[in-house]
């Protein structure tokens, strides 16, 4: 009860974003050391506590931290004037109220992003000041109607605001809290002369996150940007894997290398990944595929192969709603919003030896893992 009340106070405090400065935190010169990674499995709050609060908002990140998450995960995209902001995609229509702003009607466009045609409003066509006039909405309101009740409460946070929130809550929570940003659409933004990699590393440096001991992972579905990051930072890197193994990282499509995620999931492929990354983030199906009836199948050797290559394994994404769960863990309630037995699915995957996991409901992962003392 106390945790719930404290979380509500935090949500109320950060709702308007007036209490979190966009300037670097005052303690940015202190080198941040990491004891977060002593926990196993690591609990990574996927887009914050996005099962309870609209994703990629300070409210979602704050709630995740009070629930005990070890890391919070912001997806990062760029504004027209070169600011890092947290959105799952650069298209704004699904997660903000931009459609209700007639002053931005001329920004409605059709673009090709990573080979896919998309229509909507895009972050790279907005300045940060314009982005700040928008409010977040729930991306999947049919599945998360409770979240949709908070539509219009939260602004779109900058990465610096997320860092400031994390550092503030480290004081009140009396424990280290990690940051786990994903660089979205790297090749696309590079083509717009809005590259994120150097800016991201410099932002971390200014805030005291330096070296492999910092509580940081930088993740990407692309390959070459991670290899470049390896040459400019010692912060930990994670290679993401798309759910369809036959897909290619988009930068590899552009380079016409033929490299697929399936290739990268083989023992030799994992050894190549280990040359630049500290960890891999596969879709759950690489570890335990589903049978034709949507029940869990037999575990693969992916975890063992990755460990043999020296890589940590952090699969995504664990969600409590029936629509996302294997058949045997679904509740009898047929509605999309019904909550099933996420604990059962978590137990099955933890038994494979994974080192961490991404979850929209981080409290459930923390509960099943048990207490983890941070020195």
TrEMBL record:
Domain GP-PDE residue range list: 41-369
Keywords from the UniProt entry: Glycerol metabolism, Hydrolase, Signal
Q: Report any one BP term from Gene Ontology.
A: lipid metabolic process
Q: Which reaction does it catalyse?
A: a sn-glycero-3-phosphodiester + H2O = an alcohol + sn-glycerol 3-phosphate + H(+)
Q: Which residues form the signal peptide?
A: 1-25
| InterPro entries to which the protein is assigned, alphabetical | GP_PDE_dom, PLC-like_Pdiesterase_TIM-brl
Annotated PROSITE patterns:
GP_PDE (PS51704)
A single Gene Ontology MF term assigned here is: glycerophosphodiester phosphodiesterase activity
**Entry EC number(s):** 3.1.4.46
What is the superkingdom listed in this entry's lineage? Eukaryota
State the family named in the UniProt similarity comment for this chain.
Belongs to the glycerophosphoryl diester phosphodiesterase family.
Instruction: Return the protein name.
Output: glycerophosphodiester phosphodiesterase
Q: Which organism is it from?
A: Papilio xuthus (Asian swallowtail butterfly)
> Gene name?
LOC106117240
């Amino acid at each position: 009860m106390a945790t719930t009340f404290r979380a509500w106070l935090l949500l109320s405090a950060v709702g308007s974003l007036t209490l979190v400065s966009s300037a670097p935190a005052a303690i940015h010169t202190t080198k941040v050391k990491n004891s977060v990674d002593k926990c196993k499995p690591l609990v990574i709050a996927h887009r914050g506590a996005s099962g309870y609060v609209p994703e990629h908002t300070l409210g979602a990140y704050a709630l995740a931290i009070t629930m005990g998450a070890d890391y919070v995960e912001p997806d990062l995209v760029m504004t027209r004037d070169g600011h890092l902001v947290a959105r799952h995609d650069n298209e704004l229509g699904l997660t903000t109220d931009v459609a209700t702003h007639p002053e931005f009607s001329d920004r409605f466009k059709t673009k090709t992003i990573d080979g896919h045609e998309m229509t909507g409003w895009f972050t790279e066509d907005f300045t940060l000041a314009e982005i700040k006039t928008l409010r977040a909405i729930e991306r999947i309101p049919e599945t998360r109607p409770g979240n949709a009740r908070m539509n219009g409460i939260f602004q779109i946070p900058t990465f610096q605001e997320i860092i400031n929130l994390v550092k503030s809550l480290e004081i009140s929570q009396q424990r280290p809290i990690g940051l786990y940003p994903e660089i979205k659409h790297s090749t696309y933004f590079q083509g717009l002369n809005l590259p994120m990699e150097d800016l991201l590393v410099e932002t971390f440096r200014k805030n005291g996150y330096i070296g492999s001991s910092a509580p940081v992972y930088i993740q990407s579905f692309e390959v070459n940007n991670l290899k470049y990051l390896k040459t400019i930072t010692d912060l930990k890197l994670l290679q993401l894997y798309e759910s369809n193994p036959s897909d290619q990282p988009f930068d590899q499509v552009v380079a016409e290398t033929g490299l697929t995620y399936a290739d990268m999931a083989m023992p030799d492929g994992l050894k190549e990944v280990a040359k630049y990354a500290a960890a891999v983030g596969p879709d759950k199906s690489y570890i335990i595929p589903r049978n034709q009836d949507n029940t869990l199948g037999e575990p693969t050797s992916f975890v063992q192969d990755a460990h043999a290559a020296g890589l940590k394994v952090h699969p995504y994404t664990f969600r409590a709603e029936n629509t996302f769960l294997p058949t045997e863990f679904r509740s009898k309630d047929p509605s999309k919003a019904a909550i099933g037995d996420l604990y059962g699915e978590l137990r099955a995957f933890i038994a494979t030896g994974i080192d961490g996991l991404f979850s929209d409901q981080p409290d459930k992962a923390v509960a099943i893992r048990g207490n983890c003392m941070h020195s």
